[in-house]
Design brief:
The protein is mostly beta strands. It contains no helices and 25 strands. A hairpin with a 2-residue loop joins strand 24 and strand 25. The radius of gyration is 18 Å and the shape is globular.
Length: 199
């Protein structure tokens, strides 16, 4: 790897970045983090202290991963995802120490879609998709897919409401809502919300 001053991204001197891997410009990798070979991290990401990124993980642009998070093989984070401190991903449904699962075929895929937030100490059981701009509350245990824009919390996590693109909780009246923060208009159809297009 080039000297740190010659790189288009920042790596703290205590971090380990194995080669080959791809890291986009403007990304910052902080204390004691470990980025494994063959991982891909986009531009303008923040990788906090003591973060582990496994081989063949794909992380989009402008992703924020707070301290003490492990992103295991089989997990993909799209653009603008936020992972709170000490939240947990898994990648095997039936782990046994005596019968190790150690190949890509053993790992169950988890997809976190654009703009989603996962709160501190939440656990995401592998094999599920967290929808665009969904909001997983602190300490939640995700055991099934989370719809786009849904706010979920609890164990197991259940839909408790919906959030705007900006993260503000929406108050639905007659199946529609205006965001108190940014003013975007939303309408609920069946079990999901959709942006109301200006006429």
């Amino acid at each position: 790897m080039k000297a740190a001053k010659d790189l288009p991204f920042f790596v703290h001197e205590s971090a380990n970045v194995d080669q080959p891997c791809e890291i986009g410009p403007g990304t910052k990798i902080w204390h004691f983090s470990h980025i494994m070979a063959h991982s891909v991290i986009g531009a303008r990401c923040t990788i906090g202290q003591n973060v582990f990124v496994a081989s063949r993980v794909r992380i989009g642009n402008n992703v924020k991963i707070q301290n003490n998070v492990s992103v295991y093989e089989g997990v993909e984070l799209e653009d603008n995802v936020f992972c709170g401190p000490s939240m947990v991903f898994t990648n095997v449904n039936t782990p046994r120490s005596a019968f190790p699962k150690s190949t890509s075929a053993d790992y169950v895929k988890t997809l976190v879609k654009r703009g989603a937030t996962i709160g501190a100490n939440a656990t995401v059981v592998c094999g599920h998709t967290i929808g665009e701009c969904a909001f997983v509350g602190a300490g939640a245990v995700v055991t099934k897919d989370v719809p786009a824009h849904a706010v979920v919390f609890g164990n197991p996590a259940r839909v408790r409401g919906y959030a705007c693109d900006c993260g503000e909780m929406l108050t639905l009246e007659s199946q529609s809502a205006a965001c108190r923060s940014c003013g975007k208009l939303w309408v609920k159809r069946n079990d999901s919300i959709h942006r109301e297009q200006a006429s």
